[in-house]
Amino acid sequence: MRIACVHQGYELYGSDRSFAESVAALRAAFPAAEIEVVLPREGPIVEILKPHASRIVFEPLWVLRRQAMLRLATVEMARLPAALWRAWRRMRGSDLTYINTSIIADYALAARLLPRKALLHIHEIPEGILRKVLVAMMRWSRADLIFNSRATRATFGDPPAIDAKGRRTHVVYNGVAGPAAALPMTYDGNRPLKILLLGRVNRIKGQEVLLEAVASLPTELRDRVEVRLVGGAFESVEREKALAELVGSMGLTGHVEVLPFVSDPTDHYRWADIVAVPSRRPESLGRVAIEAMGWGRPPLVSAIGGLVEVVADGETGWHVPPGNAAALAAKLGEIILRPDLWRGFAAAGRARYEAVFSEHIAAAAIVAIVADKLKAATPRQGRAHIAREAETSP
């Protein structure tokens, strides 16, 4: 059996880790399979893929990104025929091609020729012209679909569970590896509240919204806050410098640290009391909020996109309007002054993480979808073997 797994990233942010977890689940379910992983270049993700991939191939992919749309539509268009040829050839030689995220245009387009072999896992909530392009590509592909949240599925037009052409649609929340148990809550209001924001530095994640909220707090409350902003910009040192300069210009140097991306954020979760996810635009799910609940760190999130599916407001964390620094500041004041109101959030969040978002639940769902698709695309004599492997996998 040959399975190709294609991913547009190479770092270790949310979609990268979700991809690696899917590859690990496929290896556990189909230990004898030849699993080829395709990436655009080498990066931190390679080390966690190596134990599960038969081989890792680095090839140029035709990836749709908002900031590159003009270049792709002009000078990069000449590369598309060769990219489509590579994608079609790999799909033809595989029993199944797992395409992680809808922005890998060459594979989504090539899937139209071999839809029975294609599984498209969508993690994005695009907007504007990019949304129209990605929705059109999804429909063109005729591949089976996995969405990582109901919000993501709604963005792509809520395709039916089975459409007229037999294409199947599933919603599977990303599984997230977490610690064996939640850490105890130690904040009692007698020391500064430690707030962690973990994420890529970009226009979506809302670092500047959190900074504005903290800066607007009365002095006596601002002195009871410590913030860590952890993450890097996607190949943009200028954005990282601009964020550090913003901290200084807002007079928050003594309250806010700006720290680089780390592949293992364990120490940051141990340090934190709560985790802020003040996203300005819709998140397709919100991996950091899930991780926070696994660690027993209540998340304070924007009420937008998939984040409202992750965090139960007033039970496992808090919702605030997106982009509203005043509302965020008011909620921070309540959290600082009344820790008794959220003392049970950590345990409730951990219980929700275990019941809905733990790694093994997502892995089982992905494996079941892949096994069904392989059986449908495999000659009859091979179907029983696929079923036995999937049933006996961990």
Automatic annotation (TrEMBL):
Domain Glycosyl transferase family: 192-350
Single GO molecular function: glycosyltransferase activity
SUPFAM superfamilies from the UniProt entry: UDP-Glycosyltransferase/glycogen phosphorylase
Pfam families on file: Glycos_transf_1 (PF00534)
Database matches in PANTHER family: GLYCOSYLTRANSFERASE
Protein name in UniProt: Glycosyl transferase family 1 domain-containing protein
Originating organism: Mesorhizobium plurifarium
